[in-house]
Every structure is written in structure tokens, then in C-alpha cells.
Amino acid sequence: MSEQSGATPQRPAFTPGLSNPYLPMPAKVIEVITETPTIKTFRVVLQDEKLMKEFSFEPGQVGQLSMFGSGESTFVINSPPTRMEYLQFSVMRAGENTTALHSLEAGDIVGVRAPLGNYFPYDSMKGKDIVFIGGGIGMAPLRTLLLFMLDNRKDYGKISLLYGARSPQDMAFGAELPDWIARPDLDCVLTIDREAEGWPHRVGLIPNVLLEMNPSPKNCIAITCGPPIMIKFTLQALEKLKFSPEQIVTTLEKRMKCGIGICGRCNIGDKYVCVDGPVFTLAQLKEMPNEL
Amino acid sequence: MVMNTDTAQKFVSFEALPAFLAKLAAGATLYAPRRENKAVVYRPWQAGDKVELSLRPTESCKHVVFPRSEELFSFDMGGDPEKPGKAGLTLQEASEPGPAVVFAALSCDARGFLAFDPVYDGCGTGGKAKDTYYLKRREKTTLIVRTCKSSLNTCFCTWVGGSPASSEGADALLTEINGGYLLEAVTDKGASLLASLPAASDEQSAASRAAREQAVQSAPQPPQDMIKAPAALGALFDSAAFWEKQSAHCIYCGACTYLCPTCYCFNITDESNGLKGLRMRSWDNCMSPLFTLETSGHNPRQEKANRLKNRVGHKFSYYPKIHSGRFSCCGCGRCIKSCPSSVDIRKIVLDAIKEAANV
User: Fold this and answer.
1) For chain B, does the N or the C end have fewer beta carbons within 10 angstroms?
2) A42, A21 in Cβ contact below 8 A?
3) Is the pLDDT of residue B122 over 70?
């Protein structure tokens, strides 16, 4: 981390669990949390105690979860490296493998290949104000860094979170939201797209609520993740708020297979999202071909 | 007859070739080109098989090192009778590959592996995550590369740094001369295969040199400004009109990718029968819309124009930018010869260079 300049993420030092990078590590599911009608959170521990003890990663890095017979898909490790009792992944049911993953119960075995990819350049964010802007399942990677920063609270300035979902039922991490709202050292704003009965928080699309929050770009880093359409308008809102491209960090997803820069499908020009990303600044994205 | 003092140069007469091949096949799986209907393909050689050395191979020998489909590991989810399919997982890595020899590989095809090497050696992760499956096969494969006499008008190896007599990527060289073949070791691996052969005479060595020179002379001259290709393709990334025009006839069948000696993209899939199964790695095809289709339905390369742009861009722009200017193309011309709708990658690259100059 020491060589990093600005908020620019770099390729990581890869620490494979095993010498064969395609071989998953068996992990036991210790808890399943139903977050929303389509999102489940899985807490897992590697079966090999030594591997679990030695496992290290950086906030923003991802892992591949294997359901043997269905395949593998990529998810961010959304528990922070400051809390290593388990590794947490949140999975939205969308296709064949995520549907299979949703059948997992406590005690079941799942394959894990991790950590993969680069990470949030948190060292270069020290001493700065931080604004997190998460939409839907896009909250998962932000959760990792948010908790990491809360666990190292003195290193950062004001921390704000704007988290939005379509409806109250679509808000993940519901069990943690009361704590996030109550914390005096976190400015937490929740929003949903349309009015819903009994919803005490904001109503409105994320980019609009962000403009109302009007965070100052001075000595501040904005970190955003969410569906493509939300990202598009959030980036416009941040530019309107005078955030420079270097001050805006996002994390991408692409269809991936190998996760180690070989299989060739997650490229944007000569950059591979699985090894050069998933974390990029807007400044970096502007240098890359427009093929998101 | 004066014997050649250079012990690396050996001679096999036409009559002695089957015995030499039998010797190679005794210590390894020997792949040699042979006719299969209208195609010339590399298949395991057995005594009595006729080796096809005059017609140009339809496919490259890529599959010897990078099989069309291979097992990564097997899994068994049946270890816990209380929770079949849910717990009790056993993983077993695929068995180690054995030694292989390719007899009469084309020089372009040998250079094709050089495009794989840095990627599969884990350059994306700073060398930390290496593709052990590829690297083991690569290490155990010896390439005997022939001086090319079978070039077609689709060939363009000289455009991308190759030559009909290139020794790049070869372990040994094979050149047809009067009465047989001259064999010349390039690496220790190659030398060990040739050890039992009689040394070539000075005359035979001279004949081989002349044949190799002749092959080089007959190759087409490369265009002057290939070095401009990476920047030109980069400059045309947002030129939808250019790519729509270039891809107009493409039916995205993928013949180009499957026949390409440098196309290294793959898919990973599971094949299971009950609680047991295999995780497989298979050649994939970037011309298919499924290649980048995401679960959400979003597809960054939905249009065929964008897929062809990525394929050409990868070979002549993105790859060279990461790999010191080296093109991820060996100029074998198979993508041109086997394209059912006459898409010509040479024309696309030259058009791009010309078009970018006018922008």
C-alpha cells in the first residue's frame, strides 16, 4: 500500500491458498441470513483450520464460491479483515449458480477461491472524509470498507453512508441498519425509490438524495457501487458536486471464470477487471475504453 | 563423405523416418500431421500411420498443450451419508500429463505458444497464480518444427515477427533436403530426442541452410507500418461505423477462434452425475454473445461489431500494450482461410492503420 499515490488502486500482491489456483478451498457454512426476498448472506469458515488462521485479504477483494455441479461465481468478501471469525458473502439469486447457492444451509460445504482482485486504497484515504453511496446489492463491497473504517475509526474524518434500495423489503443488512443509524460517528442516510407505509427514512432516487445531502468534495473521497444505471447518475451527481475523477472510487463486476487474469472475458481494453480491478477510480475508468 | 562436426545437426532418410518416429513414440505421445477426410490434423501417431508433410495442416498443434477440454479436478459430495450433496466434499486434482512430442509443427504454430506463455505463467497476478495445467504440459511437450514449404496466400507470419524458417518456440528444426530430413536441435529438450540419429554431412547441412534461406525468401514482405496497429486500433475504439463495416459479414461462428494458435480464452464448467463430477476447462469463443453475457442480462459486448473489435483489439492492441509490443497473432492465416464469410484480419488491421491516419 505504501507506494500508492492519491486514491489510485493497484494490482494486488496475490496470496493463493493453494499452489493450484483453480482448486477451491472447502468451507463450512456457519450461518445463513435471509436479507431480502432475493438476497441471502452466507458466513463461512475454511475447513482447514490452518488455512483459515492464515487467510488474509484486503477490503474490496473478491472470492469465487463453488457449488459443485453448478459452477462458480464471483462475490465480494463483505466482512472486513478486521473481523476474521468468518468470511461473509451476500448472494443475489439471479442465475443457475446463485440459485444453487441459495439452497445452502448451516453445516453445508461450499468451495471458496479467494482472495482475488485488487482492493480499496484505504491507506491513501486516511485523514479524509468518506462518503459511501450504495445501491441494492452494491452495498456489499461498501460494507467491507465501511466496517473496516469503523474498526479503524480514528484514521478517517467524517464518514457518511447513503444506502438506497427499491423498497424497504429490498434493503440488505437490515439487522445492522439500526446500529449504523444510531452510531454518532457515522452519518447514515437510507432511501427507497417510492413511498412505502411505515418507512421513516428518505424517499427518492440515490443521485437526487445525494445532491440534497450536498457533501463537500473538500478532502473527501466518494465510494460508490450499485446497478449500472444508478452508478451512471451517481457519477454525474458527484461531478455536479465538484468531486474530481480522482476522488471517486467504484468497484465493477463482469462475467468472470478464472479470476486470475487468464481466461480472457472480463477485459476492458487491456485491463482485466479480475486482476486490475474490481476497484477503479473514475479517473482510471476515463482512461479505459468505454465498454462497461 | 565428410561428417559434420556440429553434433546438433542430424539426418534421417525418408526410409528411416518410420523407425525414428517409432522411437519418439516409445517415450512419449507422438503427435504428427495426418489426413482425416479433407483436413490435416495432429493426432497421436502409431506405427504404420502415414505422416502428411506436403499439405498445410488445417489445425495447429495447440491442443497438445492446451486440450480442447480438460479436467481441472473431480469432486465428490457424497462423503457424508447424513447430508448427501451438502457436506463431505472430496476434491481430487486431475492426473499429471505425460510427455508429448509434436513432429512437424509449423513455425507459426510454435510461435503461437509464445503468446500463451506469459499469460499462463501468471503475469496478471505478478506471477503468483500460475496456470499449472498449461505449464506442466508445456514443459513436457517437445516441438519439432518444420521449415515451412506449405505457405498459402492467406499466410502472413512475417507481418507479426515470424518466418517460414523461424526457430522461435521450437525445440528442434526439421528441414526436407535431398533424400530425407535434416534435424537440428534448438534446445536441450530437442537435442535429447535427436541423440540417436547419425550426424548430418556438411553437404546435408548446406542443403538445409539453402532450403531454409529459400523458404525465407519466398515469404511475403510485411507492410511497413504494422507498428502503428496498437495505437490505430485504440484510436478507433469508439468508431462504431468502422467496426460495423468490418464485421458486416461475420456470422460469429467462432471458426477463427477455434483454429487460432494464439486464442487462449477458456470457459470453466461442471459436469456432474449425481454427487460426483468433474470441473472442466474448455476452449471458449469470444465471438459468441454468451462469452460476456452476465446473469443480470447485461452484456458489454452484445453486438458482433464489438466482439470482433475485441478479438482484433486483443491481438493487435491490448496484448502488445502489456507484452512489449508482441502481437498475439502468429500469422498462420487459418482464421482467413477457414472463415465462411471471408473476414480477413489482415485487411481489418491495415484498414484501421489507414483510417486512424485520416482521423
Assistant:
1) N
2) no
3) yes
B294 and A269 within 8 Å at the Cβ level: the answer is: no
- pLDDT at residue A274 greater than cutoff 80: yes
Q: Report the pLDDT averaged over residues A146-172.
A: 97
Instruction: Tally A–B CB contacts below 8 A.
Output: 150
| Minimum-distance CB partner of A11 among B89, B93, B126 | B126
Mean per-residue pLDDT for B132-154?
A: 95
Please name the residue of chain B whose CA is at the shortest distance from the CA of residue A264. B265
Cβ atoms B86, A108 nearer than 8 A: yes
Asked if B248 and B343 sit in the same domain, the reply is yes
Tell whether B215 and B257 lie within a shared domain: no
Strands A87-92 and B266-273 come out as unpaired
Q: How many distinct structural domains can be found in chain B?
A: 2
How many H-runs (helices) and E-runs (strands) does chain B carry? 13, 11
Taking alpha carbons only, the member of B246, B260, B263 closest to residue B343 is B246
Which residues of chain B are within 8 Å of residue A68 when distances are taken between CB atoms?
A: 75, 77, 89, 270, 272, 277, 279
* pLDDT value of residue B359: 72
- For the stretch A125-137, pLDDT in tens is 999 999 999 999 9
Give residue B155's domain range: 1-66+92-219
Would B73 be classed as within a structural domain? no
Residue A15: predicted pLDDT: 46
Q: Does the distance separating the beta carbons of A22 and B77 come in below 8 Å?
A: no
CB–CB of A16 and B128 under 8 A?
Answer: yes
- The reply to whether A15 touches chain B by the CB within 8 Å rule is yes
Examine the domain organization and report whether B117 and B247 are in the same domain.
no
Domain boundary among the residues B182, B200, B219 is at B219
| ipTM of this predicted structure | 0.93
pLDDT over 90 percentage in chain A: 91
Shared domain check, B123 and B47: yes
Q: Which residues pair with B39 in a beta bridge?
A: B36
Q: How far is A16 from A260, CA to CA, in rounded Å? A: 10
List residues bridging with A74 in a β-sheet. A64
Question: Does residue B228 share a domain with residue B215?
Answer: no
Element of type H or E holding A62: strand A62-67
| In chain A, where the domains are located | 25-116, 122-287
Model pTM score: 0.93
Residue of A nearest to B115 (CA): A262
Asked if residues B70 and B272 have their Cβ atoms less than 8 Å apart, the reply is no
Instruction: For the domain covering A122-287, report its CATH number.
Output: 3.40.50.80
| CB-CB neighbours of B316 under 10 Å | 24
Say if B86 falls within a structural domain. Answer: no
Interfacial B residues in 276-335 facing A (CB < 8 Å): 277, 279, 281, 284, 286, 291-296, 298, 300-301, 306, 310, 313-314, 317-319, 321-322
Residues B214, B136 within the same domain: yes
- Judge whether B76 lies within some domain: no
Query: Which residue, B188, B219, B250, sits at the end of a domain?
Result: B219
**Three-class secondary structure of residue A132 per DSSP:** strand
Domain A25-116 has CATH 2.40.30.10: yes
Q: Are residues B234 and B200 in the same domain?
A: no
Residues 6+ apart with CB under 8 A from B254: B285, B287, B288
Whether residue B134 is found in the same domain as residue B172: yes
